[in-house]
Amino acid sequence: MMLTEINFDGIIGPSHNYAGLSPGNVASANNARTASQPREAALQGIAKMHANLDLGLAQGFFMPLDRPDDRWLASLGTNFPDADPYLQAAAMSASSMWAANAATVSPAPDSADGKCHLTVANLQAMAHRSHEWPGTLAQLKLAFAHDAFQVHPPVPSPFGDEGAANHLRLCSSHDAPGLEIFVYGITGGKYPVRQHIEASRAVARYHRLDPARTLFVAQADAAIGSGAFHNDVVAVANENVLFCHQLAFADPELTYAAIRAIMPEVEIIEVPRNIVSLDDAIASYLFNAQLVTIPAGDGPDGGMALIVPTEARDNAAVWGWLEEMVRGNGPIRKLVPVDVRQSMANGGGPACLRLRVVADPATVDPRFIATPEKLDTIADVVAKTWPQSVSPDEIAEPGFVAAVHQARSALLDALDLSELV
Ligand SMILES: NCCC[C@H](NC(=O)CCC(=O)O)C(=O)O
């Protein structure tokens, strides 16, 4: 059994649009009502997956969900043509692209029963995301049907759960038992808190985690209030490294001490607020990075790489700090900027677009595992069928709805996944 970290990216769906649906998400608000480019968006995501394969990383993907979500609208007593524009936009959202919010994942070495556990996130804080979970659950049950996994339905209402975006795992290596850190919000000032501690505690119970290696940590109110609606906007972990902003956690010193008490070998790289302000961190998304271990023999000199959005390179304070960090003798040796601007404009960086699953790739349904050839097939379908551009006023047009349906069906056909209705 070879346990490896596999990054599953959400393929950016054909209905990708900027409807400004996420209060507390600065980018979503700033770009509200502008035109989006679904085709370019999806191609950017595919290019990121190609680049990760080139780094020697294991890569998977999830299909876009069926949009508009007619079942959800029916449960609200309406249908797409009759619904008001807000419900139409919420039903049409391509938000399942942000796979970090699909589920929380606890790899097998962390669980008392030796299975890899996944709990689908209920995403109940935002209407347009609250109806993702049935489609996501169906997909995870298919991809992870092997008995190496256990897929759990979401935590019940009213406890909000946003999945892996509020979850950090530290370990000596991916296949060793880890320390799992659940980050929750208390108050977000003017913005909603999305992750509730009761939900985090329930997930830890479902996953049969060892309480001695599980922490529940409050996110700083200032971070949520500045636009860090998920903790992965201000912190990321990989193996023994925690990379975070000074204002990520409500009580940083206590948090670091609690981590060190369980895992003395942890390396905490904290970015000081006087060098990178919270506003710069949120605008550049330097922490919404994929912090990955380059497989031995494949890397420039081994070590870890930080896959950052190009927005981080464009910010002088952020890029200056990052360049100095990689020149030092630390664990992060390489910066890899990737262009995911279409997703970034809705508040989703490289880390939001992926769900990390530590598992034996042989136990995953192979239809969800990426190869360069399969990514080319996906890119081909996208180039032929994804709408080029759409403004929020156009998402209810019958022609657009038909194009969205056709595009997704073409992709499911090409990947032999038509059973995902
Ligand atoms: N992890 C990143 C999630 C980004 C996501 N954006 C959105 O849903 C924007 C949708 C819109 O405004 O059309 C969110 O805020 O949950």
Automatic annotation (TrEMBL):
<comment type="subunit">
    <text>Homodimer.</text>
</comment>
<feature type="binding site">
    <location>
        <position position="346"/>
    </location>
    <ligand>
        <name>substrate</name>
    </ligand>
</feature>
<feature type="active site">
    <location>
        <position position="162"/>
    </location>
</feature>
<comment type="function">
    <text>Catalyzes the hydrolysis of N(2)-succinylarginine into N(2)-succinylornithine, ammonia and CO(2).</text>
</comment>
<keyword id="KW-0378">Hydrolase</keyword>
<dbReference type="GO" id="GO:0009015">
    <property type="term" value="F:N-succinylarginine dihydrolase activity"/>
</dbReference>
<comment type="pathway">
    <text>Amino-acid degradation; L-arginine degradation via AST pathway; L-glutamate and succinate from L-arginine: step 2/5.</text>
</comment>
<feature type="binding site">
    <location>
        <position position="101"/>
    </location>
    <ligand>
        <name>substrate</name>
    </ligand>
</feature>
<dbReference type="InterPro" id="IPR037031">
    <property type="entry name" value="AstB_sf"/>
</dbReference>
<dbReference type="InterPro" id="IPR007079">
    <property type="entry name" value="SuccinylArg_d-Hdrlase_AstB"/>
</dbReference>
<protein>
    <recommendedName>
        <fullName>N-succinylarginine dihydrolase</fullName>
        <ecNumber>3.5.3.23</ecNumber>
    </recommendedName>
</protein>
<feature type="binding site">
    <location>
        <begin position="19"/>
        <end position="28"/>
    </location>
    <ligand>
        <name>substrate</name>
    </ligand>
</feature>
<feature type="binding site">
    <location>
        <position position="194"/>
    </location>
    <ligand>
        <name>substrate</name>
    </ligand>
</feature>
<comment type="similarity">
    <text>Belongs to the succinylarginine dihydrolase family.</text>
</comment>
<feature type="active site" description="Nucleophile">
    <location>
        <position position="352"/>
    </location>
</feature>
<feature type="binding site">
    <location>
        <begin position="128"/>
        <end position="129"/>
    </location>
    <ligand>
        <name>substrate</name>
    </ligand>
</feature>
<dbReference type="GO" id="GO:0019544">
    <property type="term" value="P:L-arginine catabolic process to L-glutamate"/>
</dbReference>
<keyword id="KW-0056">Arginine metabolism</keyword>
<feature type="binding site">
    <location>
        <position position="232"/>
    </location>
    <ligand>
        <name>substrate</name>
    </ligand>
</feature>
<dbReference type="Pfam" id="PF04996">
    <property type="entry name" value="AstB"/>
</dbReference>
<dbReference type="GO" id="GO:0019545">
    <property type="term" value="P:L-arginine catabolic process to succinate"/>
</dbReference>
<feature type="active site">
    <location>
        <position position="230"/>
    </location>
</feature>
